[in-house]
Amino acid sequence: MVVLLAASIGSWRAITATGRYKIFPVVGLLIAAVGRGLMSRLAVDTSLVVAGLYMLVTGVASAW
């Protein structure tokens, strides 16, 4: 949740600084695709750190 909040604030600041907003859904979709691809590679023996990083990527995508 902290990463989601930070990414949300970061995208808001980027939008207000540049005035461009149309690129952010496209970037979010690409990040989501990468995150879901990473999540599909999880296995039973995947470490918690790696699983957490994959979830972090997926969470950042929802804020963009």
In short:
This is MFS transporter. This protein has 64 residues and is mostly helical. The chain has three helices and no strands.
Give the SSE layout.
Layout: H1 2-18, H2 23-39, H3 48-63
Explain this structure to me?
- This is MFS transporter.
- With 64 residues, this protein is an all-alpha fold.
- It has one domain.
- 78% of the residues lie in helices and 0% in strands.
- The chain is built from 3 helices and no strands.
- Helix 1 runs parallel beside helix 3 and helix 2 packs antiparallel against helix 3.
- The protein is elongated and about 45 Å long.
- The two termini are 14 Å apart.
- The model has no long low-confidence stretch (mean pLDDT 91).
Write down the secondary-structure element order. HHH
SS field, number of helical segments = 3
**Structural class from helices and strands?**
mainly alpha
Rg, alpha carbons: 13 Å
Instruction: Let me know the largest β-sheet.
Output: none
> Proportion of β residues?
under 5%
Query: Which regions are unreliable across 5 or more consecutive residues at pLDDT < 50?
Result: none
Count of distinct structural domains? 1
Number of strands: 0
In one word, what is the shape?
elongated
Report, as a whole number of angstroms, the end-to-end distance.
14 Å
Organism: Modestobacter muralis
Protein name: MFS transporter
